[in-house]
Design a protein that fits this description.
Number of helices: 9
Shape: globular
Largest sheet: 4 strands, antiparallel
Radius of gyration: 19 Å
Length: 199
Amino acid sequence: MSKKKAKEQPKPAGQKVREFKVGDLAVYPAHGVGRINAIETKIVNGETHDFYMMKILENDMIIMIPTSNVEQVRLRDIIDKKEIPKVYEVMKQRRESPAETQTWNRRYREYMDKIKTGSLYDVAEVFRDLSLLKLTKDLSFGERKLFDTAQLLLVMELSTARNTDEQTIISEIELLLAPEKEQGSEKSDDSENIDNSDK
């Protein structure tokens, strides 16, 4: 039966389930940074399970996550500060705007799938692509919503990892994504400062 599946699937030898403690910060895919406020034991369908009670920092939403399902739901630690320049590199990569020949429904599904992976690199790609698209057309309501979600997830995690305010991160990513002609001579100076701030 499905309710026993989590217990019946052993971890491969040598691998451990990531264990979080009360007070730890973590990232829940598509929702962002949250804090483990408690670990509670509850009876579900006659079985006893432990749950992380996670409070999302942005909106105070409480998410109940079975401690045995950490990998399945892709709950993870906040990105290491040393990884931030790599995330910025993803956003600096110049590619053509998302193909206009591709239907919006297909683009939307692909973007949502990337956001749901929980990878900040994937979220950065979505934010970059929609930022480029914004330069050539007005975003639809759905596109704007995805853009806002990607920006929120990026800014929340990067500001937490860097221990800095959100406006600083917003200013940095806006500079990274500004059209080349607007970056001008300040591009080399400011982008160098962005990368060096994390070393």
